[in-house]
Amino acid sequence: MNDTPGWASPGSSPSDGHEPGTSGPSEPADRPGSGQPSPQPDAQPQSPGAQWSPQQPPPAQWSAPSGPAAPPPGPGWGTPPPGGPGHWQGPGGHGGWQAPGGHGGWGAPWGGPPPAAKPGVIPLRPLGVGEILDGAVSTMRTHWRTVLGISLTVAVVIEVIVVLLQGLVLNDYADTDALGDPSATVDELAQAMGDAMLTSGVLFVISLIGTVAATALLTTVTSRAVLGKPVTTGEAWRDARPQIAKLFGLIFLLLLIAVGVGFAGALPGILVIWAGGGSGGAALAVFGSLAGAVLALWLMIRFSLASPALMLEKQSITKAMSRSAKLVRGSWWRVFGIQLLATVIANIVAAIVVIPFTFLAAAVGGDGIGGFVDGTGDFGWTFLVVSGIGSVIGSMITFPITAGVTVLLYIDQRIRREALDLELARAAGVQGYGPTPGS
């Protein structure tokens, strides 16, 4: 940068392009301290190569160069500060350092970007963990009629089916008494374990169907709650109905993948056991199962956002899984941690409700609490009905929280990667929403 009179610091080198010792513009003769007479009007200007005067003025006497005013600062930088002690103004009075006690910078203090629009239960910007959990709870509180109506309906239907199956079929068919008998043979233990796994599997599939149905309906409710728009149960059903079959297919495909990966991990150990490997084969099967479980968990988190992608984007099953993998990429641990936290919180709250009902059911409808704790009690219809009421209430809590967190995680990842907040703001009718200058 070429030095100009008034901006060069004392003792600075000559301007670029002039060699030391060459001539340059002479100093004014009438400047205080120069000791030279003022030039006559008819004096000829000296050549432009004169050297700078060795006598520089004190720094306090320097002033900003005159000239055309600097362009006004751009939007977002504020107005120029007033002159006076503690303020410095640049050329033309624009911009400058601000006094201590305020915020440094050019112009008036900058207060940061404006707050994000919040037409619904979340602000339209990248969300924190607390905001995601709060958004799920706020959805349940704001649209409690629709949310609790959907959760109650699904939970009651599922629990009625479970109670009927347990009371009419499973309790008579499944014999698990050998699991608590120390003298039971290996064949009896194997038979009892098979019956227990069959019973648990049937109940799990039924509960899964209810979870899928609740998730499908609550996804629509949560997406409308983000925009601040109400939705009825009928509207949620009409919006979700075309995708429910695909959602069932997605859930069962994910289950098949998880079971297949776990079985593939245990398969080498199983083959060794069949070949007479003994304890070595059992150890290999255990370690293989653990490795398969870790891989299955990684895949399930990777595809955990496929459900809202399928429901909200009206995608196919494979496309929804691809979208989930893209959104989770690079954020696996964050998605895993938030979903684990939401699941733990929901199950703790549900357990606070379910456990008292279970002990009450054991006290009034079976062989007492002692038989329930020992696992030797014979529980009838009263136990099943009372414990089923507790399960319904617990499901009314867990369904909205888990479904809401999954949907809000999907929205948050799209905001972070695809600027979905702009689309949501336009859909919610927010005026003047967009990126601020300099952001």
TrEMBL record:
- Keyword Transmembrane helix present in the record's keywords: the answer is yes
Q: Pfam families of this UniProt entry?
A: GPDPase_memb
* Recorded superkingdom: Bacteria
**Compositional bias segments (type: Pro residues):** 68-84
Bilayer-crossing residues are: 147-169, 202-227, 247-276, 282-311, 332-359, 379-411
Q: Where is the composition biased (Low complexity)?
A: 32-54
User: Which PANTHER family does the annotation name?
Assistant: EXPRESSED PROTEIN-RELATED, OS08G0107100 PROTEIN-RELATED
UniProt name for this protein: Integral membrane protein
Q: Tell me what organism the protein belongs to.
A: Streptomyces glaucescens
